[in-house]
Amino acid sequence: MTTSTGALSPPRERPLRSLSTFLYRRSNLYLLLLLVPPLLWLGTVYLGTLFALLTQSIYSIDEFTAQIVRKPTLATYRQLLTQPANLDIVLRTVSMAVCVTIAAAVIAFPVANYMVRYASARAKAVFYVAILVPMWTSYLVKVYAWRLILAKEGILSWLASAIGAQPALDAILDLPGIGGPSLASSYIGMFIVFVYMWLPYMILPIAAALERVPGSLLQAASDLGARPSTAFRTVVLPLALPGLAAGSIFTFSLTLGDYIIPSIVGAPGYFIGMMVYQQQGTAGNIPLAAAFSVVPIVLIALYLAGARRLGAFDAL
């Protein structure tokens, strides 16, 4: 392009190119614009609903009219923490979550360690597929399948009879508090289903943490005379602690909030998720449902604070 004097004028930049150049020169502004949509979504949907939940929990319900009294009060939390039935529900749920987390960690650690340290590339791929494929299956299908497996005439009872272990199974089902007429109607069966459902969420974080442990550290520990158990305790376990903490957060929190498995498998008895569903649905006591919902949030927050103080997240 030429001017009236014949000199060349610089080409005009297109609007998109100008905007690209402007954002390229201001990287902080560009990063802020990228983060605004997800932050708005998180703030509106998650934090907004969480704030609404906490707000509902400080209200109470009129026992005569069944209407929500929208005046700040701690009566609902007092009802949650003083009534034995509610405390029993919280204790039952937390106990199951702790047992499931410990069992999942005990099972997952050897599996993850074998995958990382000893399995060939092909065997490792098979392990990952075997762990991930069940996660793609319908949640309800797996729960109902386990109900059939654990039923009184299910395949597990048939297998126990076939190998002569029926007396041992009957002795386990006769245990007070955790037994029942069958595995499908006992807390033992519920525990088995919980461990099966959440085990992949424990194996994968531990395997990811073990992948980052250099083999040279184990060789150095062996050269210095450390036994395998000592090397595991002093080298592997501290470095794998972030993965173990991440997996335990998954298993613990998922067990705390689940209401489908306790509704389908296990002995009669409410869990926190079941109470939240019943109170906000059938009973219409939304403040009490919100107060029950706060319990897992507080427990997870305390767990994260304790894990952070122990240095579980230093390597993340």
Structure characterization notes:
- The protein is mainly α and 316 residues long.
- A hairpin with a 6-residue loop joins strand 1 and strand 2.
- It has a domain at 90-309: MetI-like (MetI-like fold, Orthogonal Bundle).
- Helix 9 crosses helix 11.
- The protein contains 14 helices and 2 strands, in the order ααββαααααααααααα.
- A two-stranded antiparallel ribbon has the order 1-2.
- It has helices at residues 15-25, 27-57, 75-82, 84-117, 121-136, 139-150, 155-162, 166-173, 187-211, 215-223, 228-257, 260-264, 272-281, 286-309, and strands at residues 60-61, 68-69.
Briefly characterize the structure.
The chain has 316 residues and is an all-alpha fold. It has 14 helices and 2 strands.
Any key phrases for this structure?
single chain; 316 residues; mainly alpha; MetI-like fold; two-stranded antiparallel ribbon; 14 helices; 2 strands; globular
Radius of gyration: 27 Å
Share of helical residues: over 70%
- Strand line-up across the major sheet: 1-2
Quaternary organisation: single chain
Count of alpha/pi helices: 14
Mean pLDDT: 83
* Run of helices and strands: HHEEHHHHHHHHHHHH
The CATH class of the domain at 90-309 is Mainly Alpha
Q: Class by helix and strand content?
A: mainly alpha
Give the uncertain stretches in residue-range form: none
**How many E strands?**
2
